[in-house]
Task: structure prediction
Amino acid sequence: MSELTISVAAAEFGRDMDECLRTIARLIDTARERGSGLLVLPEACLGGYLPSLGGGEESEQARARRLRSLPPALDLDGPELRRVAELAGDLVVVLGFCEADGPVRYNAAAALHGDGVLGSYRKVHQPLGENLCYSAGSEYRAFDTPVGRLGMQICYDKAFPEAARSLALDGAQIITSLSAWPTARTATVERMEEDRWKQRFDIYDRARAVENQVVWVASNQAGTFGSLRFVCSAKVVGPGGEVLADTGVEPGLATAAVDLEAALAQARGGGMYNLRDRRPELYHRVVQRHGVVGQPDAPEVDLVGSL
Result:
């Protein structure tokens, strides 16, 4: 089988939609020049992300201000995504945006191609008050594309092994993880390479790839937006957990060529095929709500405040 060239971006996107589209067009042109079949762009690259991450109780006035600061809500079949699909042509482009479903908003991703929308996803796991701005999605589903069977997730989703495993069990060969992942808000450091949230981002990327034996493609925002400073670190990770290309802590486009069928066969061959060797009959607690061991009806623990 011929190699698939994958490009993934660490790039800066804000509220100016025309500038967002110009940046996307430049990245598509560069990816095409490199012979890419797949380009993965960041979370919220059509209209930017949230200016801050909060949580806790809000007054009605504070909530109104927060909602006024959200990115523009776009329709899945609206002109903005149609424009990106036109730019994509024979390239598969995955990107993030704020999706409108009537009055409800979702932090969403879509895979686009010259033929239109190949698949879409609404973010399931919401950190640090994101639920004050967006409703949560409810499904992980892989889908077929011209470059292979693809799964999508967004940012905080990568902290949950069950999310990537659900996509792998649905046949995903490639999982795209789109982020607006910032530096830590406390215990800050001068060198971004030493930032603990940047290190966590990298650990999750490699772990999710190797434990599911898939090609993992992680994009991220770059620069700053509001109070957030993003860690960049876009990368392509092979199914053995090896980093094939990485932007580091700078904006850029990381590109790697992968023989998808051969890479998956090598990782899953021999004595360690993780999906085959699972023992789901023993994993009962994995799908239970968090509580005290031995007390299934214990109140749920608030994990958001401990991040």
About this structure: Confidence is low (pLDDT under 50) at residues 292-307. The longest strand covers residues 92-101. Helices lie at 17-33, 60-68, 79-88, 161-169, 196-212, 260-268.
